Structures are given as structure tokens and as C-alpha cells.
Amino acid sequence: MRRGNDRSAALRLIDVTLVFLVACAENPTAELSPVSTESDEIWHDLITHTTFYPTFCRTIGRRFIHHVPTVNDDIASGRAHERTVTAMRRTGLPIDERLLVRAPTCLNTCNHACHDADSDGDDDK
Predict the structure, then answer these.
(1) Are the C-beta atoms of residues 61 and 22 closer than 8 Å to each other?
(2) pLDDT tens figures, 86-102
(3) Which one is predicted more confidently, 90 or 113?
(4) Contacts of 117 (CB under 8 A, 6+ apart)
(5) Distance between CA 76 and CA 83 in Å, rounded?
(6) Which end of the chain is less crowded, N or C, counting CB atoms within 10 A of the terminal residue's CB?
(7) How high is the pLDDT of residue 88?
(8) DSSP reduced 3-state for 117
(9) What is the count of structural domains for the chain?
(10) Which residues constitute the domain of residue 46?
(11) Pick from 74, 91, 93: which is nearest to 33 by CA?
(12) How far apart are CA 6 and CA 123, in angstroms?
């Protein structure tokens, strides 16, 4: 996460990222995309906790939530962002709407646009 964020802002970013991951778990074929660069950075950090992340994924959605670097028109056009925000709102979890800014790529963090997918053919249960 970028330096200079205060604790309250950091916690709000973590919360919106967790809602994003719940939305991914509830919509396994939707190819949802992080709503901000900061949210994507948090997802990247979470993935690096290799013993925790798989358990976390199964707890919230009974499947591993894959991070798939990709660049496509769906992400670049903002359609993936719109679909993601809709899916996040459908979770019923509280969301700080100010954090639902359009960030179609995570080019500043991993040099790829990113989305969730479970396209490897196994359900990772």
C-alpha cells in the first residue's frame, strides 16, 4: 500500500478489498477487477501470505480466488469496473462508496491489468 495513508484510510482500503474478494467468491465466472490501484496492491500483498490466502479464499467462497494478469477491452473500457461495483454492492456488505473509483489496470503495481478468474479447470475445493 502506498506510503502516506493514515490508519483510518488504510482500514477503509482493506475493507473495500475484502468486499471485492467476497464479490469474486460469489461471482466465480464474472472476471471482476479491483476497484483501485490501492485495492489491487492489497490483493497482491494478501496473495503473498501463501499459507493464509488459500484458507481465507475457501472461508469466504469455498474456492481459491485466482489473480489473473490480463489486459483486454473489458477492463480498459470500464465495463469490468462497473460489473465489479455492482457485484460488490450485491454482497450486502458495507462499502465506502468514495473508494469505488475507476482504476481499470494495476499497471503501477504489477505491469498488468488484473481480474479474478477460476479458469484453470479445477474448482480448488
Answers:
(1) yes
(2) 999 999 999 998 888 76
(3) 90
(4) 31, 66, 68
(5) 13
(6) C
(7) 95
(8) strand
(9) 1
(10) 7-117
(11) 74
(12) 38
pLDDT, tens digit (0-9, with 9 covering 90-100), for 22-77: 999 999 888 898 888 888 899 999 999 999 999 999 999 888 998 887 667 877 88
CA atoms within 13 A on the CB side of 117: 11
Please choose, from the candidates 16, 36, 28, the residue with its C-alpha nearest in 3D space to the C-alpha of residue 64. 28
Contact yes or no for 19/99 (Cβ under 8 A): no
Q: Is 122 a member of any domain? A: no
**Are the C-beta atoms of residues 96 and 39 closer than 8 Å to each other?**
no
Helix (H, G, I), strand (E, B) or coil at 29: coil
Residue type, 35: V
Task: Write out the three cell numbers for 98.
Answer: 468514495
Position 124 in a domain: no
- 37 found inside a domain: yes
Structural domain contains residue 111: yes
